[in-house]
Amino acid sequence: MRGPAVMDRSSPVPLHHQLKVILTEMVQSGALKPGDPFPGELRLCEQYGVSRTVVRQALVQLEFEGIVDRMRGRGTYVATPRTTQGLVQSLSGQFEDLAARGLHLRSTVRTLDVVSAPDHVARALDLPDGADVALLERLRFVQGEPWALAVTYLLPDTITWLRETDLAEGSLYAAMEKHDTRPIHGRRTIQTRSASAAMAADLGLRRGNPVLLLTSVGLDRREQPVEYFEAWHRGDRTVFEVDLVRSGAVV
Questions:
Q1: Residues near 7 by beta carbon (within 8 Å), at least 6 away in sequence
Q2: Residue among 133, 138, 137, 105 nearest 120 (CA)
Q3: What residues are paired with 115 via a beta bridge?
Q4: Which of 13, 130, 199, 232 could pair covalently with 195 via S-S, beta carbons 3.0-4.6 A apart?
């Protein structure tokens, strides 16, 4: 590998930061692609004439920024870009959110049926204990890679048109809007979890790897809950953005 730049030892910018910038530009230019092995520490030391401490500092920064993955016993690899999703935004579905970023979302429908609502789902949807709900479980892929496992509960009368909807390539929220059941606002929470053996197999992870659990309740214009979902996202493929707005008077 031949780098596109050299270290400037007369610059006040620390050497490890210069090296990080050089290596980042190589990834962004396509000289190194996702999944490619990254040059080893010794090779970087020799190529750029810096110490191993400088190289390690640069790699730590690259790992923190999600540009490389460092795997114990296996080496360092160019990371697959993480999918960014907003948490505070207009209430869009994942299909619309990712499509707006130029990414392709595809789903494998694993369950579509009417079931008895678990207690926490009945409470979220303001239904009697054990009431029927429509259950939609999808394994979701972004750019062909496993990204999230989504379990959605809807009111039971949605099952008829759900069975007539393209839920593999189409948008659930678009279908809900067509049938006047789309939520217009709601509340989402995010938590960290460890992947179970089954979830790890679904998402292409190792058991115990971190996953992000996104939970949401959606309400319609009548303030009635119409959707509850839980989505487990790969922690190494997802970044959630939060828009911050200051309220109140300026002091």
A1: 15, 18, 19, 22, 48, 49, 50
A2: 133
A3: 133
A4: 199
**Are 241 and 87 within 8 A, CB to CB?**
yes
Residue type (1 letter), 79: A
Question: Would you give per-residue pLDDT tens digits along the chain (251 residues)?
Answer: 444 467 888 888 889 888 988 998 888 888 888 888 988 889 999 999 999 989 988 887 787 667 888 776 778 888 876 554 444 444 445 555 555 555 677 899 999 999 999 988 998 898 998 999 999 999 999 878 888 999 999 999 999 999 999 999 888 988 999 998 888 887 788 888 888 899 999 999 888 988 988 888 888 888 889 999 999 988 877 766 666 555 454 44
Taking alpha carbons only, the member of 57, 60, 159 closest to residue 115 is 159
Looking at residue 233, its amino acid is: H
Q: How many CB atoms lie within 10 A of CB 231?
A: 23
Structure tokens at 189: 């929470």
Residues 6+ apart with CB under 8 A from 247: none
pTM here is: 0.61
Q: Could you give the CA distance from residue 221 to residue 219 in angstroms, rounded to a whole number?
A: 7
Count Cα atoms within 13 angstroms, Cβ side, for 117.
24
Main-chain phi, psi angles of 72, to 5 degrees: -60, 125
- The CA distance from 77 to 123, in Å, is 45
Q: How many CB atoms lie within 10 A of CB 206?
A: 9
